[in-house]
Amino acid sequence: MKSLKRYQYERYAVLCNLAYPRIFKQTRYGFDPNGQRTIANRSGKTVVRVLWNKHQEEAIIVIKGSHSVSDWLLNFALWQRSCQAFGLDYSIHAGFHFILNQESQPSHKLDTLGLSLFERTMVIASGLIENGKRITITGHSSGGAIGCVIADALEQKHPKSIKRIVTFGQPAIGGWRFKKHFNLAHKTYRICCDLDIVTFLPPLPFAYWHVGKMLWLYNGRIFENTPSVVRFSRSVVSWLIRPFSYHLMSKYIRNKDYFDER
């Protein structure tokens, strides 16, 4: 697995953050004036943005996470549903399955009724792949989770079409069969920040598994593939001792800038 470079991390993080506002001006970030297709959920709200530049090989699919009360409630659907309808031989979290399988309302003149969010994303991405693009998928929270499923389906339909997957604050997706049959672990980077509680969900040990390389951003450093138990323990200990760390002289020296020079 190649390393994730800083400029790549910053680019995907910015795009994930900008996926939430209703309006996104893609030309400000190097994409073509016509280089964006949005994919809406059952309520007509944009969930997926597909972005590209005709002069670049990489097209990027950006997927936002839970952004309504109903979306958050789906996180409590802790049972699993088969992905055979998506052409995949494993089961995933029922809430994520619902997000993928919900009917997508048209948001473009080329869109038609009757396609699910998964199907519409596959159609648009497949068209770009057939025109020579390779796909990077990035997403925040549940967006990262469903992005992994979409990427796996695209890779099966169009071998070697996926460049990388980068997720932020992503919960676990499926069971052991998912972990075993997911084909893109070597291209997947799962970014976790400090004690982000969502990255420990669902709270069912051995029923749900993560995939790919985990990069934990903690205490000014990047740790790779730190076990969840260790990550949780370090964070809790850090919280407990933090009040005492403010007594150190190094803290007083670091705060010298509060005083005016005289």
Automatic annotation (TrEMBL):
Any one Gene Ontology BP term: lipid metabolic process
Top-level taxon of the source organism: Bacteria
Domain Fungal lipase-type: 61-204
Protein name (record): Lipase
Lineage: Bacteria, Pseudomonadati, Pseudomonadota, Gammaproteobacteria, Vibrionales
UniProt xrefs under InterPro entries: AB_hydrolase_fold, Fungal_lipase-type, Sec_MonoDiacylglyc_Lipase
PANTHER family attached to this UniProt entry: ALPHA/BETA-HYDROLASES SUPERFAMILY PROTEIN, FUNGAL LIPASE-LIKE DOMAIN-CONTAINING PROTEIN
Species this chain originates from: Vibrio qingdaonensis
